[in-house]
From TrEMBL:
Keywords: Metal-binding, Zinc. Its EC number is 4.2.1.1. Binds 1 zinc ion per subunit. This is carbonic anhydrase. The keyword Zinc applies. It catalyses: hydrogencarbonate + H(+) = CO2 + H2O. SUPFAM superfamilies: beta-carbonic anhydrase, cab (SSF53056). Its cofactor is Zn(2+). InterPro entries: Carbonic_anhydrase, Carbonic_anhydrase_sf. Zn(2+) binds at C38, D40, H96, C99. Belongs to the beta-class carbonic anhydrase family. GO terms for molecular function: carbonate dehydratase activity; zinc ion binding. Signal peptide: none annotated.
Length: 191
């Protein structure tokens, strides 16, 4: 049996037994927040519980390392849509300790790509096209600095509403403890 068939079998029972009813909500976040966090599996259930979030409370965006890598990439677009279309009034950028992006080995990733059949010549083509794979895949050395950088990108985005608080936090992936790196309310008061 494949993982897909296990998922589909479970899903049929889930729908038939109407287990979805306990998760019914609207597309608008009840707590009016958008959270950008890491895709780390340890945070899947832990982070919402540690933040007292239930289904429907927040828009949650996940990316490797909770990093805003490009001012007009999909992460920033999702944040802006959450604010302007889906009624979010605050942004939370939450990195975490022991993040895989803090120890990423770009050479190893490229080697793995080649090992899975990506033509090694493609990397030369990409380089001449202005794409540096090592830079594109690069992580960070310090989660606190990474969170600050992403917060700054969101706060200073030309399309960002300057009245929206943008908070930066770091989570502990075992306990869920949240440490405030930058308090968006205090930042707005100080401006």
């Amino acid at each position: 049996m494949t993982i897909l068939s296990e998922i589909i079998d479970f899903n049929k029972e889930f729908v038939q037994n109407e287990e979805f009813k306990e998760y019914e909500t609207t597309k608008f976040p009840d707590k009016r927040i958008v959270v950008l966090t890491c895709m780390d599996t340890r945070l899947t259930e832990l982070l919402p519980k540690a933040m007292n979030l239930k289904n429907g409370d927040a828009k949650i965006i996940k990316s490797a390392g909770a990093i805003v890598t490009h001012p007009f990439g999909s992460v920033m677009r999702s944040i802006l849509i959450a604010i302007y279309e889906l009624k979010a009034d605050e942004v939370y950028i939450i990195g975490h300790h022991d993040c895989g992006m803090s120890s990423i080995d770009t050479d190893s990733i490229i080697e793995s790509m080649v090992g899975r059949g990506i033509d090694n010549n493609l990397f030369t083509t990409l380089k001449y096209s202005g794409i540096d794979m090592k830079d594109w895949l690069r992580g960070f050395n310090d989660v606190t600095q990474s969170v600050k950088s992403s917060v700054d990108q969101v706060r200073n985005h030309p399309l960002m509403d300057r009245k929206v608080p943008v908070h930066g936090l770091v989570a502990h992936p075992h306990t869920g403890q949240l440490d405030i790196i930058t308090n968006g309310y205090e930042y707005l008061v100080g401006k």
